[in-house]
Specification:
Blueprint: E1 22-28, H1 41-56, E2 68-79, E3 87-98, E4 102-111, E5 114-127, H2 138-145
Antiparallel strand pairs: 1-3, 2-5, 3-4, 4-5
Length: about 160
């Protein structure tokens, strides 16, 4: 799904749909449930992955420069409410921080207007030959900046 231009001055809580310029959806599957009958905690990491992958690995507009790939260095998930099968979720994603060799993505998992979880993914650009982190080139920084929101500081997304 093509990103909509975020308003960098807008203030939106990480639990608000308005906070995220990128969207994808996932179907809840019976196999996603645990003994308590709700969607298992591990599946929430998969929802964050769906949000990342939809943007980072779009075949029509790949982001990683030739000879590099993205690796995940950190994943934090905050659970806000349970999800139950059957149904679907919408996953909102944005870039919250750009570093020299890494960037931070934030995610919100929604069922309707209810935010079931928020997450943070720290991604590193890795050189495929050296297997070491490499500098984010200007063209990549520009594309990441196009979906960057300053209203969700990654260090404050948790809790609440």
């Amino acid at each position: 799904m093509p990103p909509s231009a975020p308003d960098p001055e807008a203030v939106a809580a990480p639990t608000a749909r308005a906070a995220y310029p990128l969207w994808t959806s996932d179907k809840l599957r019976y196999r996603d449930t645990d003994r308590q009958g709700h969607v298992n905690n591990a599946v929430f990491a998969t929802f964050c992955e769906s949000g990342r992958a939809t943007f980072l690995y779009d075949p029509a507009a790949p982001l990683a420069p030739a000879g590099t790939q993205f690796v995940i260095a950190r994943l934090i998930v905050d659970y806000r409410t349970e999800l139950n099968w059957p149904g679907s979720v919408d996953i909102g994603t944005a870039v919250a921080r750009l570093g020299n060799r890494s960037f931070t993505m934030v995610h919100g998992v929604f069922q309707g207007e209810v935010c079931a979880s928020t997450g943070i993914s720290v991604m590193v650009l890795m050189d495929e030959t050296t297997r070491r982190a490499t500098t984010l080139p200007d063209a990549l920084r520009a594309r990441l900046g196009a979906v960057m929101v300053r209203s969700i500081p990654p260090d404050t997304i948790g809790g609440g």
